[in-house]
Amino acid sequence: MTDSIAHQQQLYVADGLSDEEIAQQADLYGPLTDSVRELIEIALLTEVDDPEVRAAMEHIESAKQLLRKQMIPGPYGVRWGASGQKRAWGNAAAGLRNAIAPPLVIDCDPDGRASTDFHLGSAYEGPAGLTHGGVSALVLDQVLGAAAEAGGAPGMTGTLTLRYRRPTPLGALHAEARIDRLEGVKTIVVGHLAGPDGVCVEAEGVFILPRWVRDRNSATVSDPV
Ligand SMILES: CCCCC/C=C\C/C=C\C/C=C\C/C=C\CCCC(=O)SCCNC(=O)CCNC(=O)[C@H](O)C(C)(C)COP(=O)(O)OP(=O)(O)OC[C@H]1O[C@@H](n2cnc3c(N)ncnc32)[C@H](O)[C@@H]1OP(=O)(O)O
User: What ipTM was estimated for this complex?
Assistant: First the structure.
């Protein structure tokens, strides 16, 4: 096994937290993340002058010092609590603790569907006033991956194919995906990202459970008890 695979495995952790403990953490760190997300937008758009900018930077520096006192070594990884509740709180698209994430709150259906209504502010701009194409890819990767997982056929993204049909505005958006078919170890998922005027980006993704997970799963099934 390579070091890289061993490192990935260590970041999938069953930490046994109760649902109550998870809710407490979400109540504590969720608003912190929201506040930092707001700060990103304000820092991008503010037009205050030198003294206010310097004063604000001092406040931010104090906040950084407070928060830095106790930290996980990072990255956050993916964790499961005692009831099986999954926390991918560091996820760049949907992580509850990641201020870079829009964040996406994705509704999943066990028949292999996923959808989300979300909002992209000024921090996600690419072309003037429009969503950055890489951000659209981020969103679609996540929503297509969630559909694969919801349908019981999860995987890492092997290939993601996008067609940008019309410019994607900033603001209120919708994305959805469904499993199209299974081909051996590959899950093929299709979906799109839409704005108020209709579909902006179409996507097809091939999701593959990595070989190390497949090997582990088949070993578990065939191991003598
Ligand atoms: C407690 C443990 C839990 C473990 C969970 C593990 C994984 C996570 C699983 C699910 C995640 C759930 C939700 C995800 C949510 C959001 C989505 C975000 C997704 C991402 O942000 S993810 C980051 C970007 N992603 C990568 O960083 C991938 C890097 N890459 C690799 O990790 C490998 O490359 C991999 C795994 C892709 C394949 O590796 P492998 O060794 O399993 O592949 P192998 O050779 O066995 O091929 C088997 C069959 O796939 C075909 N095939 C191979 N590669 C292909 C490709 N690229 N495209 C199309 N088809 C491909 C072959 O042609 C063959 O096809 P055929 O069977 O028809 O011959």
Answer: 0.93
